[in-house]
Specification:
heterodimer; A: 115 residues; mainly beta; 4-stranded antiparallel beta sheet; 57% strand; B: 111 residues; 6-stranded mixed beta sheet; 0% helix
Chain lengths: 115, 111
């Protein structure tokens, strides 16, 4: 698991409530990512971070925000959860940019259900 | 749209046989490719990668072949075992920080 811990592993929440997912790494990697995985869509990038306090949007960022106040932690927040955000969320890390031949390593995911 | 995709969504093989999983990519400028394995209930696991200046790279029981002319790569698994049953993805960077994944091929190994 490349020293990546996601918490919680499972979460059930109601529509309209805020939810925060946490990713913690022990590899001291600079880059961190949040992906969601849904049947028929594969893995899609939500947000990513290229350093402390440096974040940017991915392809499906609407309804999500992130924060990275420390190298080791990357938080994903759903400000007001909707049923369309029911998914499995994966955190990933990489030592360098993937364009510099640096693969991503993934955690084991958080299964989120919004009722 | 996606930069990478897979020819076959499912592949079933007998234990001990060799498996070949294919992937087509659309971006001719792609210069780095990664294969991942994802078992049920787990996150994608890095298997092997290859740079565009290579045609072939070997790992433990796995070989990745890259054909830049037809924008195709394949993952070969030798002597497939039941523990190899999983979904396999190829991926490539589409920008400085973003990796695009194909939807995956489900490999089933029959004992």
């Amino acid at each position: 698991d490349a020293g990546i811990t996601q918490s919680p592993r499972h979460k059930v929440t109601e529509t309209g409530t805020p939810v925060t997912l946490r990713c913690h790494q022990t590899e001291n990697h600079r880059y961190m990512y949040w992906y969601r995985q849904d049947p028929g869509h594969g893995l899609r990038l939500i947000h990513y971070s290229y350093g402390v306090k440096d974040t940017d949007k991915g392809e499906v960022s609407d309804g999500y925000s992130v924060s990275r106040s420390k190298t080791e932690d990357f938080l994903l927040t759903l400000e007001s959860a909707t049923s369309s955000q029911t998914s499995v969320y994966f955190c990933a890390i990489s030592e360098s940019s993937p364009t510099y031949n640096s693969p991503l390593h993934f955690g084991n995911g958080t299964r989120l259900t919004v009722t | 749209g996606e930069n990478v995709g897979l020819h076959l969504p499912t592949l079933s093989v007998q234990e001990g046989d060799n498996s070949i999983i294919n992937c087509a990519y659309s971006n001719s400028a792609s210069d780095y490719f990664i294969w991942y394995k994802q078992e049920s209930g787990k996150g994608p696991q890095f298997i092997i990668d290859i740079r565009s200046n290579m045609d072939k790279r070997q790992g433990q029981r796995v070989t990745v072949l890259l054909n830049k002319t037809v924008k195709h790569l394949s993952l070969q698994i030798a002597a497939t075992q039941p523990g190899d049953s999983a979904v396999y993805f190829c991926a490539d960077p589409v920008s400085n920080y973003k990796l695009t994944f194909g939807k995956g091929t489900l490999l089933t190994v029959n004992p």
